[in-house]
Amino acid sequence: MSRLDTREKLAILADAAKYDASCASSGTAKRDSRGGKGIGSTEGMGICHAYAPDGRCISLLKILLTNSCIFDCHYCINRKSSNVRRARFTVEEVVQLTLAFYRRNYIEGLFLSSGIIRSSDYTMEQIVAVARSLREDHDFRGYIHLKTIPDADPELIRQAGVHADRISINVELPTAGGLKALAPEKNGARIEGAMKGMKGAIEDARDAKRKYRSAPGFAPAGQSTQMIVGADAADDGAIIQRASTLYDRFALRRVYYSAFSPIPDASHVLPLKRPPLLREHRLYQSDWMMRFYGFKPTEVADATDTNGMLPLDIDPKLAWALKHRETFPVDVNRAPREMLLRIPGLGVKAVNRIIASRRWRRLTLDDIARLTVSIAKMRPFLIAEGWRPTALSDRAELHLRPKTEQLELFAG
Fold first, then answer.
1. Cα torsion for 178, 119, 141, 135, to the nearest 10°?
2. Less crowded by CB within 10 Å, the N or C end of the chain?
3. CATH fold group of domain 6-275
4. What is the pTM of this model?
5. Residue among 21, 10, 36 nearest 107 (CA)
6. Model confidence pLDDT, tens digit, residues 249-290
7. CA distance readout (Å), 206 to 16, 78, 201, 213, 351
8. By CB neighbour count within 10 A (0-12 exposed, 13-18 middle, 19+ buried), where does 296 fall?
């Protein structure tokens, strides 16, 4: 590896980190340095890289410790056999970069991942050393998100949780068969074992915090994971079911989906063409349906077509509604909250406004229009004062299936 300066390393390792989608900063403990102690804060606004649930833009320095790796996962551009330019930060370089960017108000936290160098334990030691130095040597109080390595010693993963706000442990692919075929050096059982251990440690820390205010925190923003979409043959129905299982078993804060992108000198076992980016978006919408709209995984999967894929031309909530027309129309003045959430086009905030408003008057279609962004999509699915739709159908004038075209990301 040629000798590179810090700027050159940053260019390589920040670009290499762009393939990791699980970069968010919500749900952590509030810390700041306004009392004159420490440096950094988990609150505030800055350059936008990630979004908190309340809409705040959070800036994170998102880098790899190194893009060298002893593993040869077929889908990874940083795999051992890949012909890419390699670079590696030292622990002190990452620490100083984080502090320098923070002092210039460029960032509010750090997202750190890495390829595997020497061994899983050695790599995890380096990642933990960065977080430990920031917290203990520099009293850094900003946000830290660490990507952990499931094969590493559990004690190292525990130490990561002590210093980080959020921990990520990637399941990589939706199915065991896909993982075995495309990442044979990774073990699904070990990955889930690490996630189970992290869940237990997070729950223990929360119990201790309820009993003793001085108890140390442990990954207060929880754990998340990422699945690559389109690299194997898993359909959307299988991905939805897998995500639901992960949420239930490991109490994850988020499951992230990353559309597979063809890489240079790709293995012959990989598809030659990337999946539509809209597919990734539809999976996020289906994820939202389970987490915030009360849909069961089987109901979301019911929105798929005969090939198990979510339609790209309409969102999955509308697809489900069209398959269950007997459920509609829903009376917005009488229906319970869980039924209002099933109306296409109605979000959680709009439903809350409707429930609050109907306590004082019966709502008309115009009232609903003022409480939402667009009334066009939802009109066939609801009853309001003075409004009852005709039979729900696929008539062209309903505009339920707009013509869409998947654009290429780098099209001229």
1. 160
2. C
3. TIM Barrel (3.20.20)
4. 0.82
5. 10
6. 999 999 999 888 877 666 777 877 888 889 999 999 999 999
7. 34, 37, 9, 10, 32
8. exposed
